[in-house]
Structure prediction request, 91 residues.
Amino acid sequence: MSLYDYLYYIILPILSVSILIIFVRFIKGPTLSDRVVALDLIITTGIGIIAVYSIHTNQPTFLDIAMILALIAFLGTVAFSYYLEKRERND
Prediction:
């Protein structure tokens, strides 16, 4: 079994199932924090899928897209924490 077979037949299905499980948490999340964490995990898992696809197709330009998504996810998490802090001050 080569690296490409391992990535294609083992890693991608695991990432796909994890996205489905995280999406269920995103829908059912009782609080806003649960939904934001689930969205951050979906983006992180998507970055993993993009990285595996980049390795599988031997096109490193997709890694630039993954890096941009990681920056957007980080900024979203920072903005959410800033929002929560502002909301706690106003209460």
About this structure: The mean pLDDT is 92. Residues 62-90 form the longest helix (29 residues). Residues 3-90 form one domain. The radius of gyration is 16 Å.
